[in-house]
Design goal:
The structure is a single chain. This protein is α/β, with parallel strands linked by helices. It has a single domain, classed as 3-Layer(bba) Sandwich (FAD/NAD(P)-binding domain). It is 17% helix and 30% strand. The strands form two sheets. It has a six-stranded mixed sheet with strand order 5-2-1-8-7-6, covered by helices on one side. Strands 3-4 form a two-stranded antiparallel ribbon. The protein is globular and about 50 Å long.
Length: 126
């Protein structure tokens, strides 16, 4: 990350989403020698989605599918614990809910899913 006084923080690659997709991209970028990577992820807990199939099948516990986000974010990668409020592709900046802005060279968007059991009537009770 490079930042001069009076400027906003900049990262060569900025990834929106620290779930499975975002962290997979981080791993690939790091293997190819990209060092300046930041991930925007508001949650403290990482949910390993593929494990939930095993939880549903009774072969794993739900606690096995969760880890602290900091423990799964690779060393040397900047974790920005915030939510994205807006993207300005012309200025190459992301505005966060906190009001902070971050600039980027390349932006990768993989925000994942958010479960809403109430969106389908009766699903939560099923």
């Amino acid at each position: 990350m490079t930042a001069d006084p009076g400027t906003i923080p900049h990262h060569d690659v900025l990834i929106i989403g620290g779930g499975n997709a975002g962290l997979s991209v981080v791993g690939r970028l790091r293997r190819y020698g990209v060092d300046d990577v930041a991930v925007i992820e508001p949650r403290d807990t990482h949910y390993y989605q593929p494990m939930f199939s095993h939880v549903a099948g009774g072969t794993a516990r739900a606690s096995q599918a969760t880890r602290p986000q900091g423990s799964v974010t690779p060393k040397g990668v900047t974790w920005i614990r915030d939510r994205v409020a807006g993207i300005d592709p012309v200025a190459k900046t992301v505005t966060l809910e906190s009001g902070r802005r971050v600039s980027y060279g390349q932006l990768i968007v993989c925000p994942g899913i958010q479960k809403d059991w109430d969106s389908v009537p009766g699903l939560a009770e099923a």
